[in-house]
Amino acid sequence: MTAWARARRWIAGLVLGAGALAPAWAHKGSDAYLALAPEGARIAVALKDLDQAVALDANADGRVTWGEVRAAETAVHGLLARDLRWLDERGAACHADWRFAGLERRSDGTYWVAEATWPCAGADAVRRLDYRLFATTDTSHRLLLSGERAGQPVLATLAPGESHAFAAAAQAQGRLDTVVDHVWLGAAHLLQGPDHIAFLLALVLPLHLALRLPGRAWNAGRPPEWRGLLAAVTAFTVGHSITLGLATLGWLRVGGPWVETMIVVSIGATALLNLYPVRRLPNAALALVFGLVHGLGFVGLLREAGASPALLPWALLGFNLGIELAQLALVAAWVLIVQPAVHRPWYEARVVRGGSWALLGASVALLAWRAASAA
Length: 375
Known about the structure:
Layout: H1 3-26, E1 31-37, E2 40-46, H2 47-54, H3 66-71, H4 73-83, E3 84-87, E4 93-94, E5 99-106, E6 109-117, E7 128-131, E8 142-149, E9 152-158, E10 163-165, H5 175-191, H6 194-204, H7 226-248, H8 257-275, H9 283-305, H10 312-342, H11 347-374
Parallel strand pairs: 1-8
Antiparallel strand pairs: 1-2, 2-6, 3-4, 3-7, 5-6, 7-10, 8-9
């Protein structure tokens, strides 16, 4: 069998295997959005998440109809009343009467929207929100809390089981609290995004990242490529920071399915260049260009959260810091993981080239899956 025939068999196998994983790879993390206003609160929860808790798809035919939505109103609003607990200054819970306000299309699907007036005799009386939605079904779920309470801007993220204490009416929410809150959100967003992780892996795969260990010589005299790693990661950071900042602040308005498609293309293209390098195309240049695209993929979460202008820059700072910290943690983990193998003579063929073929196959499978889903 020729080398080209073996390569074709590899590609076919990888595409078929990755095709089964494509829907999971494309899935966005579970988020809900709670907006506070002077008259009350408005929440948007994805139908796909609610279906796991109250079985919206009553006949299990794979789609939720308008009739099934209306039939589930009592169950959904009972779930919200139970798992979003408004507490007064004494810690007593106040009942919120949620009303169905329609369906809303967002970047990752259709959302159930419900509204309620302020419980606890008004916004000033509410001192804490306890959030428990999907606590037993999805620990990666996050609530993005935004808007204003008692005339002060509010911006926070809550995991199931966490609570948010509202500042007194005369106090504004601290900028540091907003930054810290969104550091965790940015880190979680990157770590829950297989497409971003796959691109980062494609960038570092061809780099020889050996640590100098006692009694261990460099592999065939090849020095570690720490400078290349620094250049690639820095370029990716600069690229996605530019578009993330511009789009979040409203100075760049780009979005739609093509962004997600281009992110997948970036993985495949980088993996292909690992297999067939182009001499005058440095890894850092590739990271910078595709980093601009990935920045547009990061922006949806912050934009849809509806942060107030006063807190948005601090949320953006924390979110970006979280992405960078998670990115550095992943690169450090990769360096440590490959140490037992990086000196081996088979490392280049099995890890670098094999990993690149796998990423290329997965990206092709995901593009095919998205095309079939859109048809």
